[in-house]
Write a structure and sequence with these properties.
By secondary structure, the chain is of the alpha+beta class. Helices cover 24% and strands 13% of the residues.
Length: 441
């Protein structure tokens, strides 16, 4: 619980009875401290400079041309808010922030892990070359560790959600230095941006198990691998192809002997999702989430909900077209590393004996089947993986590759030619490698 609002004078936790303070003589040292930095004064400050006040309406002042994507700050994209709050769309100076969070270990304390979770707000009113600059990204919360808050992240988000509700419903009077007048500033949270584990913490939809996909939700075609033991989404996407696409009738290159006739999963509206979560408890109004808690009826079979997210308290949340986004950086790094290790045939390759056994069960690809040599299972070399001489040749090429200044880091420094190994690829290195170097290599 938070010692917040009407509970700020309490000494013991309402849920577990733990003392608020550490026992250290007369001094009152809290067990845990949440740092919260109100965002309203900083949003008002954006309008106290002529330059930034003008940039805060950049997307309204530069209307989109035919064929170009609608930006979140364009008036056309927000017609569905008129019924919720008529004055929101009419005021071009209202703020559209996005929220992002992720955990990290400060000072690289690998021997003594500590998971710290900062929560940032990005102002999408600004031009695209400004909104992600350090000067315009607002730190609103610093959630302490030592462990990740997990699904109980909502406990710490309460002050921020309360301020966002105030900024939407009541607003604050603000002076615009560029236009030299006062107006009522309101704000609406567009969406969240996170990696896949943090997606579960923010949305309440568990990203584990057969129903982990937040797009397919309860209508997933995934299955559990017999030998690998993990959920697999292999051949789950032919259903999204046009009905007359030849891949739908292909019985050789996907699941053996399988054709697909049904269509893609239905995309639920915000109101339909609200019907599912409205009766689910929140973690800050009852029992905090614990993986050992009894799961909700139907969990893992028809749904993956573990809580009602605190974001549903926002009056406009169900009307949003997109509520949660996955960031490209983590996904691209994971895709690259898996692809790279398979192609380079390293010890971290996912193309192992268990996966080859599953290939025999599910696919019609005899060239990849294991064979027995002297009572030992042997894995035949796949056409998509390189031989040792080829791997060495790629390493020598990578060691000498050069880039324009500032385009990429020294990727050659991540290569060891002696034993043809790789290490310490950063996210941007993975991006450059997959988008530029892999096709050449």
């Amino acid at each position: 619980m938070l010692y917040y609002k009407d509970k700020k004078e309490l000494i013991n936790c309402e849920v577990c009875g733990l003392s608020r303070y550490k026992s250290n003589g007369r001094s009152k040292i809290p067990n845990l401290v949440l740092r919260y930095f109100p965002i309203t004064p900083r949003l008002q400050r954006m309008y106290m400079s002529k330059k930034t006040a003008k940039d805060m309406t950049w997307h309204h002042d530069h209307p989109k041309e035919d064929g170009k994507m609608v930006h979140p700050s364009d008036g056309e994209a927000w017609k569905h808010f008129d019924s919720t709050h008529p004055s929101f769309s009419s005021e071009i100076r209202n703020v559209r922030p996005g929220l992002c969070t992720d955990g990290f270990t400060p000072n690289n304390q690998s021997s003594n892990p500590y998971s710290l979770w900062p929560v940032f707000l990005t102002i999408y009113n600004l031009p695209s070359w400004m909104c992600l600059k350090d000067d315009y990204v607002n730190l609103s919360l610093v959630i302490p560790g030592r462990k990740s808050p997990g699904q109980n992240l909502d406990v710490f988000l309460q002050p921020l959600i309360d301020e966002l509700k105030m900024l939407y419903e009541d607003g604050v009077e603000t002076y615009d230095k560029y236009r030299k007048n006062n107006f009522i500033l309101r704000a609406i949270l567009l969406w969240t941006v996170s990696d896949f584990p943090a997606y579960a913490m923010l949305s309440g939809w568990s990203t584990h198990g057969r129903l982990a996909c937040p797009h397919c939700m309860g209508d997933s075609s995934s299955f559990q691998l017999h030998n690998g033991g993990k959920p697999s989404w292999f051949d789950c996407h032919r259903r999204s192809l046009p009905q007359n696409h030849p891949f739908r009738c292909d019985v050789n290159r996907f699941l053996a002997g399988t054709t697909i006739s049904y269509g893609p999963p239905l995309q639920l509206t915000g109101d339909q999702i609200w019907e599912q979560v409205s009766q689910i408890p929140t973690v800050y109004e009852g029992v905090p989430y614990n993986p050992k808690n009894k799961k909700l009826n139907g969990f893992g079979q028809t749904h993956n909900w573990v809580k009602r997210s605190i974001f549903w308290e926002l009056p406009y949340w169900r009307t949003l077209l997109i509520r949660h986004n996955l960031d490209v950086m983590h996904i691209e790094k994971n895709v690259f590393e898996n692809l790279f290790h398979i192609v380079m045939d390293t010890s971290k390759s996912k193309d192992n004996v268990k996966s080859r056994k599953d290939v025999e069960l599910y696919c019609d690809r005899a060239v990849l089947h294991l064979f027995n040599v002297n009572n030992k299972l042997t894995k035949p070399k796949a056409a998509y993986s390189l031989t040792k001489p080829q791997v060495k040749k790629v390493c020598e090429w990578l060691k000498n590759v050069k880039f324009p200044d500032g385009y990429a880091s020294n990727i050659g420094g991540c290569v060891n030619i002696t034993d043809s190994t790789f290490y310490s690829f950063k996210s941007h290195d993975c991006h450059v490698f997959m988008q530029r170097l892999l096709p050449i290599a």
